[in-house]
User: Fold this.
Amino acid sequence: MNRRELLASFLGVPFALSACSSGEPLPPLPEGEIVGASDGIGHLLRDGLKVEPPAEAWESAGVVIVGGGIAGLAAAWRLLREGFDDFVVLELERAPGGTSQSGGRAGAVVPYPWGAHYLPAPQKENRALVSLLDEMGVLEGADADGEPVVAEQFLCRDPEERVFYRGRWYEGLYLHAGESPEDVAQLESFNAEVDRWAAWRDARGRRAFSIPVRTCSDDAEVTALDRLTMAEWMRERGFTSTRLRWLVDYACRDDYGLTAAQTSAWAGLFYFASRMKAPGADAQSLITWPEGNGRLVAHLYEKAGARVRLGLAVADIHTPDRNAGGRTEGGGTQAGGGTAVEVVAVGHDGQSAIGFRAGQVIFAAPQFLTKYLLRPYREGACPAHVAEFEYGAWMVANLTLHDRPRSGFGNFPLAWDNVLYESESLGYVNATHQRGLDRGPTVFTYYYPLTDERPREARTRLLSIDWKGWAEVTLADLARAHRDIRALVERLDVMRWGHAMIRPRPGFVHGAARAAAQKPFRSVHFAHTDLSGVALFEEAFDHGLRAAEEVLAARGMNFKSMR
Assistant:
């Protein structure tokens, strides 16, 4: 595609015509490259790569954890809390963390995120997460109600967010400037609906929306929300305000990589109501660092230490279906020591193979990989629920700037989160904001979700555009608000996430697939944020703990659950 076609495809035809109308030559692109996300070896595994380790390349481990994202690292953290250290974590990428990983080049003013960049302050009921944050020194005790108190330096500093609309920046995400009385009335009505759901309790005292998802009510009144889209829910209630609909659509694109017309109404309301302690309360404060959730990854990775083996892609998980030598069938698992499962992994060359014989496996990778990696699934016994898991594609770019863009007269100042109202993207996060560095060099992290109706088409579009193309899209989009952006960027690197996050479309969150996917298969226990239907740190962390505790129980160890 030429530049006009490229911008039309990703930023819209009217914008492309405007951006390409001047005919003036553009400054050259900065340096940069596509980084991370090893789709090459991933595609080899998808296409049936077969490798066999030599006899001397086999090792023994009590537990093999497949995947070094948050769920896998959380499982390792939980095992270590019980004094169990006979495990290994195998991670495809050369850095741990999955979509929570961070980066930082030599000489960069601060590190920066490559995906998830904040964590809402947990409520006291989330005991395990509170324990992790306390271990990290993020908390300063508890208040009179027992709620954890986050140290001030870890709370997102003001201004937290702003939105760019028709040449100006405005405070907050909802565009109040120029709103009509009808806009005001509809926003108040929407907030009242959110308050109603925040107050709602079922007969067992469970909230409709809470974190982690397993604590949410499964009452029929709540689950009915999962049978329609968020756009349909709003239409039924007469929410026609363009500004309100934009806010809700942005929320769905931000957390799920879906439009409001694609997102389950349950998930849409979860975004607003799950982070409130009570009706009328503000959403929980945000915990963040320059590198985003990479700080959490670094802590968990340090705890696991050398047990994490990077750059190893699991190619085969063999779980014999026989009842011998302590092995069990039909969803059971190996008790104590011994071998119940064999795992084969390869390096990025697709040839150097290593094998592990273990008692159990914690499969802390997305469900779609099970049909390629679990031998019984691959050989024709793949359960139907695997096909129900759909994943969205994202592009993330980190721009290193030698100075800040100029702001127009009277514009709201640079914030942590900076959103473009009229863009298909989510805007950018300013990495130096949390450090209080308000002048000079900085790093902008730009997010673009591909919301195509068919996930495969989104991945094809994502991967068909090279670095130059994504750099053009990023710089052209940001030039809406920052006309001098090209002259300020020294480097622009791109990460392409083909399976970035689970898509909570209608019928999935309260469907049968999630529940089925969480059940162990022979000696394999599953842990990943996709098992919650929403891609949040808290969900990945919780599933990692659950799978680890399943393994501890299978091994006959006594422990007190942290969940």
